[in-house]
Amino acid sequence: MSKEEASKPLSASDASQGFNWWIRTLKYKTGISLTDQEKLAYEQENKVKTELDQCAKCNEYKNFMLQYSPTVTFMIDQINQVGGYVDPDKLKCEICTIPRYGGYNPGMGVQLCANYIDNKWVLNDTLSHELVHWYDNTRFKVDWGDIRHHACSEIRAASLSGECALVTEFKRRLGFLRYAKGHQECVKRKASLSVINHPACKDKEHADEVVEEVFRSCFNDTRPFETIYR
């Protein structure tokens, strides 16, 4: 813009447009005098922006863990060693319609729920959990239609991912036996919460029964780890 152009007074049209923009911005920020249509458009615009921000942050966390997380990098290596391959494009940050951190599908890979994962440590545990499922599916050929197979993998994933780990301070104060018991109870609870969504599961009581039935053998199988990660 030249000095001459900058010094020219605004036309009535330009001034009107500027004023209207200011009024519209003020209305959006305060919510005052918005029509129902304007409110809907504003809410939709904010929703899209929020979801884009959530997915961007989720991908940032994911990329960090793919590079630096001992559990995530170890599990990916172990999956490769048993004949599988973790395609980075199949580790997807998405907006989930039901409250959960993530999920695993043998054909589609891992879903990471960007709108529920609020920090990189939650993503680390979630991705580690789902990679245990991926490992089980590759190594043991899991029949996901069999509720006991499903329960077994959920037990292993909850135990080995680190999501049921207790802080060192708790371990020191409570003692090993109570710590170990607390870990197992956490694993059972999380496994049951997943199994209850299986098509063959009747109710929570049924989920608890199935988890209890297979718990000992599945909990004691720590492959590919030498011991339980806590």
Automatic annotation (TrEMBL):
How the protein sits in the membrane?
Peripheral membrane protein
Q: What is its EC number?
A: 3.4.24.-
The top EC class is hydrolase
Keywords assigned: Hydrolase, Membrane, Metal-binding, Metalloprotease, Mitochondrion, Mitochondrion inner membrane, Protease
* UniProt KW Protease keyword: yes
Report the locations given in the UniProt record. Mitochondrion inner membrane
GO CC annotations?
A: mitochondrial inner membrane
- Describe its function: Has a dual role in the assembly of mitochondrial ATPase.
State the family named in the UniProt similarity comment for this chain: Belongs to the peptidase M76 family.
Query: Would you tell me the protein name for this molecule?
Result: Mitochondrial inner membrane protease ATP23
